[in-house]
Fold:
Amino acid sequence: MKQTDPDFQIVDQLIELALVEDLGHGDVTTDSLISESEHGTASILSKANGIVAGTEIAKRVFLKVDPELRVEIIAKDGTEIKPGNIIARIEGRLSSILKAERLALNFLQRLSGIASETARYVQAVKGLPVSITDTRKTTPCLRQLEKYAVRVGGGKNHRMHLGDGILIKDNHLAILRCKGWSMKEIIAKARQKAPAGIKIEVEVRTPEEAAEVAEAGADIIMLDNMGLEDMHRSVQLIQGRAIIEASGGITLEKVRAIAETGVDMISIGALTHSAKALDISLELN
Structure:
């Protein structure tokens, strides 16, 4: 399994659940009209420009429906595609192809849309020493797949789950400040309780808070919804004492200017929660 591949054990579980949802009561249209003895071929085609992701997942959908289908992937994940490009070919029972079609395309369109959107952000900051990362704003139960698509598009993953790093946000701070804890005490307590190797990140909203958190010893400082001037000032005040993440309100139009402030990473929830599905279709030959 490649380093960028999703966990296929989880993938297969998701496919099983999705097939129960879509095919659990049968396909009355196909079963009424198409004989299982009819064989043919079909092509999955791109109808838009983008980056393809999810081909192996789509293939697994077809083979779950009918292990005797033959699926040939033409455009592997990460391939730049244009309208009319063939992504995959399927051969076998036409009834099986029709039953698997929608679910296979749903996965393929969703993940290709995320990969394509990520690639646009990565391209926008090309040449600058900054990483484009995702967030935990993912579709419930699809995080493995959606974060995989981000990697396919050239981005990096932030926390995969709540156990993947300490991120002290405004609501955590509100509770702890009420107890009278200082920032140094908060970070020291987190470091004392954290598993070995876990990094501590703190969310800040002003350059002054950024300086305080850097002094307190955080590993990563998140600049939350700051303007460009405040970001630049925060970078100066932190003075390389921590990794700096910009987050909140990031758009494709602003992302390069944000990168030019000197931050190390830019996290974008829209990569997964708002990416438009890539237009992909299946056509029988």
The longest strand covers residues 39-46. The mean pLDDT is 96. The CA atoms of residues 33 and 95 lie 9 Å apart. The chain has two domains: 8-122+276-284, 127-273.
